[in-house]
Amino acid sequence: MKLRKVVRVMMFILVILGAIGGVGTLIPHHTAAVKKVSKSVHYAGERAFAAAFAKAYLTFQPSDSSSTREQEMSSFAGNTSWLGTDPAVSSPGKKAQTVGQVLAGRVSKLDTSHVTVNVLVYLRTPKARWVKLVVPVGISGSHYDVYAPPTLTNAFTGVASVQDKTWSGNAAPAAVVTKVQNVLQGFLPLYFQSRGVTPLQPYLNSAAHVQPGDGLVKFVKIDTLNVYGAKTGPWIAVTDVQVSDPVTKMHYEEEFAIGLESQAGHDVITGIVVN
């Protein structure tokens, strides 16, 4: 949680600077009034397209030539001019990279014909880890294309690992979404305010190791929630959570991927990764 403490201090400094005409606008995402987030369910086509692209983009073999990669990516890119200048396409690496779970999360609307889609990807090889790929998607009727290079970050290092399981790539049934939301509505306020793990234990399975939020920020609400998995689980919830900083009073979002499963008749959390 040291990183969160540093972020909190930096945000406080930026607010002071902003008040005196300084650099308070350098982080527009952390605004006093959060813009209403469009529900991701309204972007089902865009999310499915971005997930398919992410899987192809992040899967490669050392033997893949730049022309082979460009040909693969051209089926997703209406504007192909960026392909030749993207190292992930022209020279992806000397080791094979394979992909496990691919989960489309937050959708941010830029204008009427452009959005970005956050896609969480579990890379199995060469190094097992979660990454986030931000995919710029152009929209023309029912046609989608990746109009610019995506942005890759290893931000999802997390406070506890969510392992790559055999989640269904499809959205979970509505009844599952409802009960997962109920679990998170109880868990998340405690997660952010607790200074120890004891209050969280009723929500965790025996193997989960979750570091609580230590009261650095306060839970406000769940803005978006997408749940993946079959009726009986396991499930993974990709959610945008609105929080407030008790010092600056600013509201902003944190993005989570939270693993859950049914255990002895109870739905419990198996792990969590946070951006």
Walk me through this protein's architecture.
The protein is an alpha+beta fold. The protein folds into two domains: 40-153, Nuclear Transport Factor 2, Chain: A (Roll); 163-274, Roll (Nuclear Transport Factor 2, Chain: A). Helix content is 24%, strand content 32%. The strands form two sheets. Strands 1, 2, 3, 4 and 5 form a five-stranded antiparallel β-sheet that branches. Strand 8 and strand 9 (266-274) form a beta hairpin. The longest helix has 20 residues, at 174-193. The radius of gyration is 20 Å and the shape is globular. 30% of the residues are buried.
Q: How many separate domains? A: 2
Note the run of SSEs as H and E: HHHHEEEEEHEEEE
Strand count, sense and closure of the main sheet? 5 strands, antiparallel
* CATH topology call of the largest domain: Nuclear Transport Factor 2, Chain: A
Q: For the record, give the distance between the C-alpha atoms at the N and C termini, rounded to a whole number.
A: 12 Å
* Tally of helical segments: 5
**What is the helical fraction, as a range of percent?**
10-25%
Q: Examine the secondary-structure arrangement and name the CATH architecture of the largest domain.
A: Roll
At the first level of CATH, the class of the largest domain is Alpha Beta
Would you tell me the structural class of the helices and strands?
alpha+beta
Mean pLDDT over all positions: 78
